[in-house]
């Protein structure tokens, strides 16, 4: 007892000598402020420069305590991640900033251009959830809007050497049920098939601690809201929620708030709809009868077949076989991807296109959000999509992984007039030439929307953002 009293006196004397206030008997220890990321010592200047360089913003409570992981070593992933990252020099901006936030267990919204490394942005940090759990039930669930995107995410998880299953409709259930019986740690799925298997008692999500919505804007539109809500109701209530996307409209943000707890939102570039600035965009005013001739001229210009790959987008599935037939008749090797393709045909076409055996793919928008191939040089919009969000995703199939690419779009008046103003704005924002005809379109009428909870209304939170006008 005397020794304890002596130790307390020594600690008190030491505190006073070091300039600390005497500790009161009922004083509680000060709560430690955790600083996550490689710069735990507090390199605020480096973070500020990094965010400014990459036009990034961070919003949410406690953003000031997170610092980027500038190297893979600083991210401190388990050894089995080494093979997946060995061909990359450093994390992409969205990875560098999101990993410390995810590692701290926070819910997150990550908004970044297509091809920016979002898949590994959520896949790598899921490893601790997998490796640290003892139960045999799935620990991670990744929801995707299309089977193509689900399959691509599955390929990325294969590189991490974890037991995972990919579930999607349009394919026999037998093999998927067999895979579920191997006790996978990760379930990657489209909502419809996953609900079907869960309702049949074949998949138990109750131990999932890490839930991801990939292409979250699409997952939360009207067609997917209820299935997503049902699936998230099946997972562990204490789960961590991650949403990654290339676009983030206000309507989606309002809905997303009901699935998130005190999230941090990370944005690379503008929060408005913006195109990848490395894509050289050309919008050509044209008539229907001139499209075939111009398409053939462009393919000749691109020297297709000389290690050059092209995706040609059409709006309706009935148009895909027509364009495919036109090009095959001119001697081109072509594949098609649309709603009437069988699953086996779709998988074979994507595999051949990825290997370069098929240099041209004609596709409907079903492929726009599911293809993740780094070396697509050109995108041609034979017909414009219905929404500007789909336009952004289409042209985002090129210029991936830091590369450059071209996107050439055929725009018809009056058929495409609803996209006129939006397209002109996307071109201007990306520093691309705007055809005079597009300048004539006025902004669309503003629709009144019911006010609901927004991330900015959850709680007052700081926003870290730097632009060229920042003088500090």
UniProtKB/TrEMBL annotation:
It is found in: Nucleus, Nucleolus. Keywords: ATP-binding, Helicase, Hydrolase, Nucleotide-binding, Nucleus, Ribosome biogenesis, rRNA processing. Its EC number is 3.6.4.13. GO terms for molecular function: ATP binding; hydrolase activity; nucleic acid binding; RNA helicase activity. It is an enzyme of class 3 (hydrolase). SMART domains: DEXDc, HELICc. It holds the Pfam family DEAD. Residues 13-35 have a biased composition (Basic and acidic residues). Residues 1-39 are annotated as: Disordered. Residues 1-12 have a biased composition (Basic residues). Residues 290-442 form the Helicase C-terminal domain. InterPro entries: DEAD/DEAH_box_helicase_dom, DEAD/DEAH_RhlB, Helicase_ATP-bd, Helicase_C-like, P-loop_NTPase, RNA-helicase_DEAD-box_CS. It comes from the Eukaryota. Residues 99-266 form the Helicase ATP-binding domain. Belongs to the DEAD box helicase family. DDX5/DBP2 subfamily. ATP-dependent RNA helicase required for 60S ribosomal subunit synthesis. Involved in efficient pre-rRNA processing, predominantly at site A3, which is necessary for the normal formation of 25S and 5.8S rRNAs. This is RNA helicase.
